[in-house]
């Protein structure tokens, strides 16, 4: 009976949907407790209730055995509850320290005392091995570092219970390893952690217990030591899940995408894609493997016209597209699942239905001489929502109100449905549950078998290895090797990604 | 109540109504404190607005340019832009309408639309400038529009003095054929200055609704306002849309100017200060939740308050300034709608 957190029979409703239906979650002191469930199962909602962002319709919350009412995040902070949101809430042109003290600025005679605060931040950072520079500006540090700033923010406020909402979805494999170490240090100091993740491997590796929810209902809590990934997956989805993609041998035909000597510069005017060459054929999935920051983002933005190309050529179906507008490029038959769904993928204030026609709204039948046909738009949206199992109360719900994974499924539905001759998928399964990943993978293979060219970018080596017919390794803005996934290992791939040479493979 | 609060659309109606109520309430308290009788004060105000056909006519007349100014602000706002330059766009529109109304010789059926069109074009160009500067050089539209207000104020005054001066600080009047004035409407309202402008204003409100809610152009304009990155991803031309939005907004403001030019005054005065209509437009748009039909209602209220203020002064001795205070209070409470939202939520919780 030494629970630090007890959430008993919590119920939370949204218009048209019961997000949490009688869920119970009990967290022991000093444990890492996993919260597992499909996209839209209600995990984020439950945590937002615990953090005081939502008020539950029913149920009670106890902290250290005491019944409490958490009316807003300040109350949560006072109770020692801190939350690291999936989408960070940092002020970009402020320093790390300024962000951390924002809202509870320490003052000395009416003046903000940055020095002392920075010192405290540094101490905390050392103690938990975060290695964050208190004076760095947020806009200059990586996503992984920003996440650590969020962690520091909660620690600075004296959090004893930390909630992490899908922290690893945005991290590179190396950063994930480091985060796991940090979490170890936190629990060693007596903190308790609630971790939301869709990656069963992570749960097996770091968590003590796991609570599973399905469609808003609590399914139960299991000891991680007494379970395995298959059982966890079956518990959350309600059926068995195949982790391995089955696909036939690829039948590549004509070249669809041909990139030659491509140079793209980033926002600081530094060339990040430096003379890159690449070919993707119809009927194959080409996976790009590489450590984050080796030019993947800029390569994709260059191909899709979102970023200006310095020099070189990009041909799609034999047509030069290097300096065309994004609209023209899309119209030559390109679909693009963007890396950042909130930045590029969705207009969050539009309904999910309106978002489904973001690339086609100006065409028939969705509009007619400039006048939108909402009937046709929502008809289409409805069928896509069904086909891709996007869990939403209706097609008229604002995209903002969908769970992260369901937003992603909406984007994938939109892009794949047009069946473009070149489909670019950047981190397509980021934030998706294992069931959804299985479905999306089979969709990508289906597109390949229809004779489309698929260009896949992913930090998940598993995904690249499983899905690709050929793997191109990107390093410092160039493709340094092309390997056959059947004849390589994760180790070898890792070595190539770190800049190691390989003799026997030809560079295209 | 709980159900009601969940409905965003209903909330957009409840909040302004509640703000108006609060404004009236606090206004009453102020009247009491300053020694006036709020009951007779509000009675006079009400009579000033609805007491006679003439007062209703005057209310609608005063509302016409306010509707258009509110639409201009609301249109820009719905596409993520803040057009503080409605005042300037209104002034150049006014001048353009007077110029065309005075110089051209056309049958009324053509002369009126052409004059209104001239006002729309002048206002549109005046709005396009800040739109272009924002799209091309990322200069914030608020700063440019404020500057352009002053440029409009002084250059219209100068142009009248040089080219259209009829003496007595006034321009030449427009020709009969360009006038929106109507003896029919005036007779119907027993001698008010009501003119056909209200029809124009309602038409423009419908046009705004249609553009924003029904067309691909509106879809693009709103998307750019919400998320430029996603708009770019979707192949929209972000720059073009920013310029277009400010141009349309400016055109609406220009038409607001033509209401005074072709309707109420039939000429233009050499202004030494702003008319204030452009700025009231911001409040009207806010009170009307940037919704075309909400804006019409809000403008009627504002128009009514302005035309009835002298009544309140005359019949109940309440000074004109106090009416301004009440208007300001209503604006304040709308702007503080977060506060009102909070109060309403509290009420509904306790009521349950
Ligand atoms: N603010 C909101 N308004 C309306 N509905 C919402 C809101 N937030 C969440 N929902 C709905 O509640 C349900 C649960 O959403 P929640 O974000 O908790 O899912 P999740 O388990 O975190 O999923 P994911 O793994 O995809 O992040 C979803 O159906 C979602 O559409
Ligand atoms: Mg979530």
General description of the model:
The complex is a heterodimer of chains A (508) and B (352). Chain A is of the alpha/beta class. Chain A folds into two domains: 5-237, 3-Layer(aba) Sandwich (Rossmann fold), CATH 3.40.50; 250-333 and 421-429 and 446-508, P-loop containing nucleotide triphosphate hydrolases (Rossmann fold, 3-Layer(aba) Sandwich). Helices cover 32% and strands 27% of the residues of chain A. Chain A has 17 helices and 24 strands. In chain A, the strands form six sheets. Chain A has a six-stranded mixed β-sheet, sandwiched between helices. Chain A has a six-stranded mixed β-sheet with strand order 18-21-22-15-23-24, sandwiched between helices. In chain A, strand 13 and strand 14 (271-281) form a beta hairpin. The model of chain A is unreliable at 504-508 (pLDDT under 50). With 352 residues, chain B is mostly helical. Chain B has a single domain (37-317), classed as Orthogonal Bundle (ABC transporter involved in vitamin B12 uptake, BtuC). A two-stranded antiparallel sheet of chain B has the order 1-2. In chain B, a hairpin with a 2-residue loop joins strand 1 (165-167) and strand 2 (170-171). Chain B is globular. The interface between A and B is medium-sized, with 28 and 20 residues.
Relevant terms:
heterodimer, A: 508 residues, alpha/beta, Rossmann fold, 6-stranded mixed sheet, 17 helices, 24 strands, globular, disordered C terminus, B: 352 residues, mainly alpha, ABC transporter involved in vitamin B12 uptake, BtuC, two-stranded antiparallel ribbon, 16 helices, binds adenosine-5'-triphosphate, binds magnesium ion, ATP binding (chain A), repeat (chain A), ATP-binding (chain A), ABC transporter ATP-binding protein (chain A)
